[in-house]
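Researcher: Quick test of sequence recovery. Tokens follow.
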């Protein structure tokens, strides 16, 4: 069964390369390493490598593989960086980021739902990702304790870019966040150019679950 999952993962990644979602060798290698089937509920393991969102409980989903690939590509994550992720789910996206920042980097992932945060921490530990820390809390306010961050990745749709996230971004740091309403958003990439100012780029329409908390819906 282990070899079957490995083959499915390899095929999934190769398809994402062919379709243009994976653009770099670094992301290709990272996604080939992360065992996605270890980050979904047991009853849907066989569907882990299908390129579509999957339910993970509490009305939440794990993003489709192509969306994860696109987000890490557009954030241009580098070795040794400190990355904040908002909307950790069961830990898969954080694991891909962890592969990109490598041993000297660090990933802080905030999850609003406690049961999912516990599952994410368990999954990451089981897969050997010691450079990821899962925090249960209101991610809409970022995570000031370990700021500033080189990159911030938000996997929930927000009404706007929360001010605390802008504040917690390092100079020339980048944030990727879906901005819009509860049902449809535009994927915005922001680069911090001044103390509290960012340059925004619209990367196109997306659909994410709503951001919860003080700066969410």
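Model:
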């Amino acid at each position: 069964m282990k070899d079957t999952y490995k083959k499915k993962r390899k095929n999934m990644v190769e398809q994402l390369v062919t379709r243009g979602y994976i653009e770099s060798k670094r992301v290709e290698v990272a996604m080939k390493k992360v065992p996605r089937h270890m980050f979904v509920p047991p009853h849907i393991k066989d569907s882990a490598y299908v390129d579509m969102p999957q339910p993970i409980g509490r009305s939440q989903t794990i993003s489709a593989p192509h969306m994860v690939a696109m987000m890490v590509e557009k954030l241009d994550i580098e070795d040794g960086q400190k990355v904040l992720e908002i909307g950790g789910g069961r830990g898969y996206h954080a694991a891909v980021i962890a592969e990109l920042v490598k041993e000297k980097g660090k990933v802080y992932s905030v999850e609003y739902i406690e049961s999912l945060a516990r599952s994410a921490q368990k999954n990451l530990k089981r897969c050997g990702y010691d450079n990821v820390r899962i925090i249960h809390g209101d991610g809409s306010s970022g995570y000031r304790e370990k700021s500033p961050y080189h990159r911030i990745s938000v996997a929930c749709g927000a009404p706007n870019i929360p001010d605390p996230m802008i504040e917690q971004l390092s100079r020339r740091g980048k944030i990727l966040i879906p901005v819009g309403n509860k049902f449809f958003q535009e994927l915005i990439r922001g680069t911090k150019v001044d103390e509290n100012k960012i340059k925004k780029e619209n990367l196109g329409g997306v659909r994410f679950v709503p951001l919860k908390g003080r700066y969410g819906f």
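The beta strands are 54-57, 60-62, 82-86, 106-111, 132-136, 149-154, 169-180, 185-194, 197-206.
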